[in-house]
Amino acid sequence: MISGPRGRIRAGVPLTAVTAGTVAMVVSYAGPLALVLAAASAAGLSQAQASSWVWAVSIGAGVTCVGLSWWSRAPVITAFSTPGAAILVTALPQHGYAEAVGAFLAAGVAATALTATGVFARVMARIPAGVVAAMLAGTLFSFGTAVFTSVRDAPLLAGAMVVAYLLARRLVPTYAVVCALAVGLMVAGVTGGLRVDLPGLGLAVPHVTVPQFSLGALVGIGVPLLVATLAGQYAPGIAVLNAAGYRPDSRVVCGTTGLVSVLLAPFGSHAVNPAAITAAICTGPDAHRDPAKRWIAGVTCGVGYLVVGCFGSTLVALFTGLPKALVATLAGVALLGSIGSSLARTVADERDREASVITFLATASGVTVAGIGSPFWGLLAGVAAHLLLGTAKGRRSLPERGSDGPASRVPTPQRMRTAPDGGS
Question: For 47-57, how does the pLDDT look when each residue is reduced to its tens digit (9 = 90+)?
Fold first, then answer.
């Protein structure tokens, strides 16, 4: 088990950890950023406001990623809330932007209070380990299957990456993901799949919006954003760290991201939180064979966030120009180790196996209800199954009145008459 701010920095920077952090950063922008831009477009935000939004979530994720990873000597990966951004695509146009910023601020304050006080950690501590692992496995499941849909849609690009990964796993397993990325970029470049058009570097200019508070925005944006972020990001994010053997103080990790969300809300940041998917890329053995050195992946990811944030939307084109099949395949092969270990822990404890399998299936289904994603509903279903099955097993194990169990040690007249010492 790894915990606390211990360890000394040794000479040399491991390439695999740097690569894992870079891959995590690329995956963070390649998909979720499209939701942020879609929400900004749907709400009719100006270019300055949209650029400030990208700057705020990038700087927030970068500062927390670097700071928390350095402090804990664990790969603490943070990101901007993906389910929160998905909610904003439809909710943001219904309210004024200043009111939305007020809702961001209120949600950040609530998240900080719930996590820094330990309430959130106490709830998580009562959930069986197998159920938590099943939620993680179900969350990562679609990324694993996306490798094969990418092979179907882009056989040359994705197929070459998979072959390169497998060959590297046999010959140089430490650099398997690096080889897959290199081959993917080479094939995409040769076939013309890279569509990167950088208009020129320019520093982003933060744009401050004075928050306004309205009941409609607090209920329509703040509450769904808080619930989706806590359930869909905080819970899986902490679960990823714990599953990999890292035990940083969750009150510090979650409280820090909540506080940063509050500070950056006037600049457009909707929520900064512990990451789950990208964290799994940096916490597995592919990031580094030595778990004590994987924190470098977290620092690398954070530095990447800061660089992108400083240049705002200029470098967004770098990530949106990568082929979807390349990003999907890269994320899938990088998560194979985490998927395997999570599945192993899902069925390891026979007592909670059914509840864990229910959690996995519900999470892997991808169902979304009331704007809240499947990780929350899978976790809820698993906990409910754990409680119900535990109650049922407890009732079955109670000795019936008049049985031969501990509750009936005094022999009844019938037992005395049929005892083998005197015949009937």
Answer: 778 888 889 99
